[in-house]
Amino acid sequence: MDISIVDTSIKCKINKEEMEELEETTLIFVSVVTTLLGVMAWYQEKYFVKEPTRNWELERRNFLNRLYRGTEIDCMEQLRVSKGAFFKLCRILEEKWQW
After folding, report:
1. What CA–CA distance (Å, rounded) separates 48 from 42?
2. How far apart are CA 80 and CA 57, in angstroms?
3. What superkingdom heads the lineage (predicted)?
4. Cα–Cα distance for residue pair 38/16, rounded to 1 Å
5. Are 33 and 2 within one domain?
């Protein structure tokens, strides 16, 4: 009987040590994963491009320049009006909105 009590005590001690080691390993793993996620979030916030890659103002100006200085065919294809009608429309808008 005395041997079984000692044997049970040793098993309990080993189980406690295994549980403590498992808890420690789990804590280390969770800490590493949390740190990695934090670094990834910081890197994404700091270095990824947040602005659109297009310069819409420049594209708008280029489009209008093609209409102003382009051929009659360009104006017809883009707006379905002649260049003369387009220039009249521009004048009306300038007068109305005083650009």
Report:
1. 10
2. 23
3. Eukaryota
4. 33
5. yes
Q: Distance between CA 71 and CA 1 in Å, rounded? A: 107
Give the pLDDT band (50/70/90) at residue 24.
very high
Q: Which domain holds residue 87?
A: 56-97
Asked whether residue 72 falls in the same domain as residue 88, the answer is yes
Cβ neighbours of 79 (radius 10 Å): 13
Distance CA 33, CA 51 (A): 29
Q: Do 14 and 36 sit in the same domain of this protein?
A: yes
Residue 27 has pLDDT above 60, yes or no: yes
